[in-house]
Amino acid sequence: MNRYGFEGKTIVVTGGAGGIGVECGKLLAAGGAHVHLVDVRADALDEAAKAVGGSVTIHVSELDGPEACAEAIETAGPTPYGLVHLAGVFEDDPLEPDVQDVWDRAIQVNLKSAYDMAVAFERRRQGPGRMVFTASIAAGRGSPDATAYSCAKAGLHGLVRSLAKKYSPDILVNAVAPGIIVTRMTTQLIARRGNSVTDGTIIGRLGEPEEVAHLIAFLCSGGASYINGQIIGVDGGTVLR
Length: 241
Known about the structure:
This protein is α/β, with parallel strands linked by helices. The chain contains nine helices and seven strands. It has helices at about 20-30, 40-50, 65-75, 100-125, 140, 145-165, 185-195, 195-200, 210-220, and strands spanning about 10-15, 35-40, 55-60, 80-85, 130-135, 170-180, 230-235. Strands 3-2-1-4-5-6-7 form a seven-stranded parallel sheet, with helices on both faces. Helix 1 (about 20-30) links the parallel strand 1 (about 10-15) and strand 2 (about 35-40). The longest helix is centred in the middle third of the chain and has 24 residues, at about 100-125. The chain starts with 9 loop residues before the first strand and ends in a 7-residue tail after the last strand.
């Protein structure tokens, strides 16, 4: 059964070779969308495209500036309907005054690329559309190991709310804010923190990529036509601890 009704619509998914990206692509493709997966890892993109199935194209990019982001949108086709921006990086932050590379990457990949992709998408889009970004519970709670990441994700909150006002009512802009989801990005964090990771949730387990993907697909759908400027948690109740 087609749950979302994306027939004839193209949706760009950055970070498309990641765990959430692949699951999101599957749902969007199953709903009839043409899915355009963007990622920095060419080999992983090939595998992601096979897993997604349906109508899918790929584009390899670091999304490291306005031109690269514009190209990622342009290669999706003439009038993309949706942008799902999952691309991101999570690194431990040494908090050393002369070590700025972690900060620079966190801001570039997690925040600036979101800004550049949003601008590129809006300029290409004609008529109603959707943008969904990836925030994090770290924006509100702070991560003791990843200060730069927490700051970048907090900035994303402001970006989403500003764009929601700027582009409404034609383009609805929202974000999901996952807790710790079992993906390649969180492998080291989960191993380091051990049982404390699951103890921090009310549900008592970690999240799965498809649980985030279902919310993203809904936010792209017609059923979310009165949701705008929201940061929606997918964290098993972690923020209530």
